Amino acid sequence: FFFFNDTATTEIYTLSLHDALPIWDAYDQYISDKQVKYSENTEVNPPRQVLVSLGISSRFSVEMIDRFYEGVRAACSDFKTDLVGGDTSASVNGLTISVTATGDVDKDKIAYRSGAGANDLICLTGDLGAAYMGLHLLEREKRACDGHPNPEPKFEGYEYILRRQLKPDARVDVVEKLAQSGIVPTSMIDISDGLSSELLHLCKASDKGARIYLNRLPIAKQTYAMADELHSDPVVAALNGGDDYELLFTVPLARRQEVFALGVDVIGHMTEAGTGAALVTPDGQEIALQAQGWK
Question: Is the pLDDT of residue 295 over 50?
């Protein structure tokens, strides 16, 4: 018993901008929010139990709440997690969702934010910026459909970035591969607020600097295409967009071959304390990273 630590994580989400989007239903919202919790909690182990509390306004019908709890059942089934409680309350401001997940982990297998060392490899489990571009797609189609009695949003060719915004996947697969390989990351965090913000969290907690390389950032083709349509920079979306829920972690340089075998992206390395965190361009220019995502 004494070799294990109890763990807990919690998230609260208030529907504001998204509640007006005609294609986002309550089921999608629950899956999105619950996957967020799993993405955060897979830094240790998948959670054993969850508690879900809702603040519900009169704008939401009984049918929508039923649909929401279909998402509860689906997510709990997918991750073999028990819903053990929660609460409900009236709300005057849309829908508020609070999810708390609990579990336990072997003390020797906990990945904190604070253990990264100089020259550790900076690893990433998937592409960035897609969720942010998916949000802009939803906003664009909402504006286009406003006032139409039978709205028909146009999402053809952008199904991937739409899913990345509406139904992010928890990267339990990578956590399992790390465990099977006997790799405990020296530091780890999920990317909810953008790569820049999360990497700076690791740097601060570990008292280290970092260098990541522009030509190593994974960005999907649909992200590039949507950014081109919107005349925006896909690199900015990758660095600061957020909602990707990929895992960002560091491992010792000596384990690089094992990490490469996992299929994750190695985007840079940690540096000594006091060197700052920067994005390195192909011509060698260093651009200081700033936390411009959600604060």
Answer: no
Summarised one tens digit per residue, pLDDT across range 253-284 is 999 999 999 999 999 999 999 999 999 999 99
In Å, how far are 40, 137, 201 from 248, measured between CA atoms?
Answer: 11, 26, 11
Spatial separation of the C-alpha atoms in residues 233 and 247, rounded to whole Å: 23
- Quote the CA–CA distance of 151 and 145 in Å, as a whole number: 5
d(Cα 34, Cα 245) in Å, to the nearest integer? 12
The β-bridge partners of 259 are none
Contact 9, 40 (CB under 8 A): yes
What's CA 192's distance to the chain center, in Å?
A: 4
Rounded to whole angstroms, the Cα distance separating 75 from 247 reads 19
Pairwise CA distance, residues 111 & 85, whole Å: 28
Residue identified by tokens 């997918």 is: 78
Provide the 3-class DSSP secondary structure of residue 188.
strand
Separation of alpha carbons 210 and 202, rounded Å: 9
- Residues 208-223 pLDDT 10s: 999 999 999 999 999 9
Selection from 140, 148, 49, 51 nearest residue 99 by Cα: 51
- Cα separation of 125 and 249, whole Å? 9
